[in-house]
């Protein structure tokens, strides 16, 4: 079912981005129909907007965002109505995790950033295992996406979507080690797409 608030906000965001922060989408055809976990690198606050604009209005997408944003007056209310999921970072947010699982089980798309926070070029980061857990528990494919780190107003930013895939693991259920291995592999796939964004 389409989210009405998402449909209202999308063209406003699209026009703003098209004027001030245009984009070049590569590999959009890799985004599957039905549920998908779109996972990318994260360097600026506007990264979710680039991805959402590249995906088009037809592919409505839930986005994981830090809970602080959801507390902003008016904006937080509108984002929540549009299906944005606020998550408390630095601790286990079970309510947010359950909402993400619910979204995927309903056959919808979810955008998240496995590093958990913005990471500037050259900085070291630790990948979180949430995407690995969501994908294996719901059978949802992972779609790596790379967003060019260097962004300039009025200049195109390239966004590259990789091939969707299902993470593999041994046994009936993945272990903590499996989750970490899947998460590390996902981040490696994201970074590898950077070659196509040059």
Structure overview:
The protein has helices at 4-20, 47-55, 75-81, 94-105, 130-138, 176-192; strands at residues 23-26, 36-40, 61-66, 85-87, 109-112, 142-147, 157-161. With 198 residues, the chain is α/β, with parallel strands linked by helices. It has one domain (4-197): Glycerol-3-phosphate (1)-acyltransferase (3-Layer(aba) Sandwich). The chain has a seven-stranded mixed β-sheet with strand order 1-7-6-2-5-3-4, with helices on both faces. Helix 4 packs parallel to helix 5 and helix 5 packs across helix 6 (176-192). It is globular. The model has no long low-confidence stretch (mean pLDDT 91).
Which key phrases capture this entry?
alpha/beta, globular, 7-stranded mixed β-sheet, 198 residues, single chain, Glycerol-3-phosphate (1)-acyltransferase
Q: What would you call the structural class? A: alpha/beta
> How many beta-strand segments?
7
Could you list the spans in which at least 5 consecutive residues all have pLDDT below 50?
Answer: none
Helix percent band: 25-40%
- Percent strand equals 15-25%
What's the SSE pattern? HEEHEHEHEHEEH
Largest sheet, in brief, is:
7 strands, mixed
Q: Total number of helical segments?
A: 6
Mean pLDDT: 91
* Count of structural domains: 1
CATH topology: Glycerol-3-phosphate (1)-acyltransferase
CATH superfamily: Glycerol-3-phosphate (1)-acyltransferase
The coarse overall form would be: globular
Q: In what order do the strands lie side by side in the largest sheet?
A: 1-7-6-2-5-3-4
């Amino acid at each position: 079912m389409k989210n009405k608030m998402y449909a209202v906000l999308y063209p406003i965001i699209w026009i703003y981005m098209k004027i001030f922060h245009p984009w070049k989408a590569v590999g959009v055809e890799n985004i599957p129909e039905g549920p998908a976990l779109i996972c990318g690198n994260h360097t600026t606050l506007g990264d979710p907007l680039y991805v959402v604009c590249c995906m088009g209005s037809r592919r409505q997408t839930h986005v994981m965002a830090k809970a602080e944003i959801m507390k902003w007056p008016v904006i937080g209310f509108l984002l929540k109505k549009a299906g944005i999921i606020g998550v408390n970072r630095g601790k286990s947010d079970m309510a947010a995790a359950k909402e993400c699982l619910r979204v995927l089980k309903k056959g919808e798309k979810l955008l998240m950033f496995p590093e958990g926070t913005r990471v500037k070029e050259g900085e070291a980061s630790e990948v979180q295992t949430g995407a690995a857990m969501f994908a294996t528990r719901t059978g949802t494919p992972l779609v790596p996406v790379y967003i060019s780190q260097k962004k300039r107003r009025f200049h195109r930013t390239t966004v590259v979507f990789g091939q969707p895939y299902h993470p593999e693991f041994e046994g009936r259920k993945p272990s903590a080690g499996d989750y970490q291995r899947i998460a590390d592999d996902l981040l490696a796939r994201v970074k590898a797409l950077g070659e196509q964004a040059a």
